[in-house]
Design goal:
Elements lengths: L1 E6 L3 E4 L2 E4 L1 H13 L7 E4 L3 H13 L6 E3 L9 H11 L7 E6 L3 H8 L14 E7 L4 E4 L2
Parallel strand pairs: 1-6, 4-5, 4-6
Antiparallel strand pairs: 1-7, 2-3, 7-8
Helix pairs in contact: 1-2
Length: about 140
């Protein structure tokens, strides 16, 4: 299993919500180019507009028709174990699948820490991502930036 954990792009307020700014869209498009060629079996994001827009832009850059899974457990202050339980109920760690997860600080960093990859938890600028792959020999995830 490979999990790509991504922070949403830069956002700006709009009608009580936050949406991607023009710069945020550019940031996400840059990251999407770096992820080009990867095929996702699933994509998850928080219900917040900026996270949904980020995930949609990444999937659109791949011409993907994949349905986006909106998860309440990807809210910024959610407990990482809540989402990971949801994820691992659907996908085996040892399976050959790739999953996109788009959320917010501090949750993106806390997800990395919960997957025992604290070295991957730092440096989540807007639209930054980390690739975590399951190493079945060591039975843990490792960062593959």
């Amino acid at each position: 299993m490979e999990i790509i954990i991504m922070r949403h792009g830069e956002a700006q307020p709009l009608n009580g919500d936050k949406v991607l700014s023009n710069l945020g869209r550019e940031q996400v498009q840059h990251s999407a180019q770096q992820l080009a060629g990867l095929h996702f079996e699933a994509a998850f994001c928080s219900p917040k507009t900026r996270a949904r827009q980020t995930a949609e832009l990444v999937l659109a850059a791949q011409d993907s028709q994949l349905a986006l899974n909106i998860s309440e457990s990807l809210q910024p202050e959610s407990e990482p174990e809540s989402f990971l339980g949801e994820l691992f109920a659907q996908f085996s760690r040892e399976g050959a699948c790739r999953v996109l997860v788009v959320s917010h600080l501090p949750l993106v960093a806390r997800l990395c820490e919960s997957l025992h990859c604290p070295e991957a938890a730092g440096g989540f600028a807007p639209a930054a991502f980390v690739r975590l792959s399951y190493d079945s020999t060591h039975r843990s995830f490792v960062a593959t930036r």
